[in-house]
Write a structure and sequence with these properties.
With 251 residues, this protein is of the alpha/beta class. The protein has 8 helices and 7 strands, in the order βαβαβαβαβαβαααβ.
Length: 251
């Protein structure tokens, strides 16, 4: 993957940054697109310094199609190509579905689903124009199959994202562009550490995850890197669950 270029949305920190780091270790040049432009620039600088690759941090609200188009143009101007797109950006307000406002429901779908539509359609047009194929990865969730009262908007958006991936896989496959999804299980990030390192949640992980530990952003990044590699040229339209076997355990 050396000298190829990947755009990762929502990658200034957390799972997105873990994905960016794994792709950078494989030799890819990285564009970190994030709502927080300053943090995106700092994270890009860190990757460039640590992994000896080129990296660019950009502010981008993926719900705004014009900003996605600007992000894509800036990437092409800097690197001349886009070989991979990772639709990672997402939100999860955790509000009971009966208490949720219409505005909040729409916002979750706008970010998690419509934003990925904008990014995929616009970046794929550049991939088609270049004529050398590409890889597009959608970060979904176990919420594609299971949900809770406070995840109705999130689950609906992620289930929709899974089917959006399949649709693009059909449309873009003839152009040598594969589309797949990675569904993370429970992942330890700076934002979730305060919860998962408490005694009760930590014990839950030991009981319910067969590999005996919580996942890391790099676990997701390694799966994405595999799907972005030449070895995955015939993998298209699948959802890969990366959860340490959690969903294999009977309730």
């Amino acid at each position: 993957m050396k000298n190829r270029v990947a755009i990762i949305t929502g990658a200034a920190r957390g799972i997105g940054f873990g994905i960016a780091a794994c792709l950078a270790r494989g030799g890819m040049n990285i564009v970190i697109a994030d709502m927080n432009g300053k943090t995106a620039e700092e994270s890009a600088a860190q990757l460039a310094r640590e992994q000896k690759i080129e990296a660019l941090g950009l502010a981008c609200d993926i719900t705004q199609r014009t900003q996605v188009a600007d992000m894509t143009r800036t990437t092409i101007a800097r690197f001349g190509q886009v070989d991979a797109l990772v639709n990672n950006a997402g939100i999860c307000p955790f509000v009971d579905i009966m208490q949720m406002s219409e505005e909040m429901f729409k916002k979750t779908l706008d970010v998690n689903l419509t934003g990925a539509f904008h990014c995929t359609q616009i970046v794929a047009q550049e991939m088609i124009r270049r004529g050398k194929g590409g890889r597009i990865i959608f970060i979904t969730s176990l919420a594609v199959n299971v949900t809770g009262a406070a995840q109705g908007d999130y689950a609906a958006s992620k289930a929709g994202l899974h089917m959006l991936m399949k649709t693009f896989a059909i449309a873009l496959g003839p152009h040598g562009i594969t589309c797949n999804a990675v569904a993370p299980g429970m992942i330890l990030t700076d934002m979730t550490r305060f919860h998962w390192e408490k005694p009760e949640p930590a014990a839950f992980i030991k009981q319910r995850v067969p590999v005996g530990r919580i996942g890391t952003p790099e676990d997701i990044g390694n799966a994405v890197a595999m799907l972005c590699s030449d070895n995955a040229a015939y993998i298209n339209g699948i959802g890969l669950i990366v959860d340490g076997g959690h969903q294999a355990v009977c309730a």
